[in-house]
Design goal:
mainly alpha, 54% helix, extended
Length: 65
C-alpha cells in the first residue's frame, strides 16, 4: 500500500514539475542545445565506420574503467 502511494505521489510530482524544468532549460539555454546528444543523436563529426558499437553510459570515468 505504501509503495503504491509513494509511486503515485512521485508520478504526480514528475508531471507537475515538467513545466518548471522545461522553462528553466529554455531560460538558461544550458540543456536544450545538448538534448539531442543526450537522447542518442550523435553529431555528424562522429561518423559511423561500419564496426559494431556499444554505447556505455556512466557517471564518471572510474565507473567506465
Amino acid at each position: 500500500m505504501l509503495y503504491r502511494l509513494y509511486s503515485l505521489a512521485f508520478g504526480a510530482w514528475v508531471v507537475l514539475m515538467i513545466p518548471f524544468f522545461l522553462f528553466k532549460a529554455w531560460r538558461q539555454q544550458k540543456y536544450l542545445p545538448a538534448l539531442r546528444q543526450r537522447l542518442g543523436k550523435l553529431p555528424e563529426t562522429v561518423k559511423y565506420d561500419g564496426r559494431p558499437t556499444i554505447w556505455i553510459h556512466s557517471c564518471s570515468v572510474g565507473e567506465t574503467l
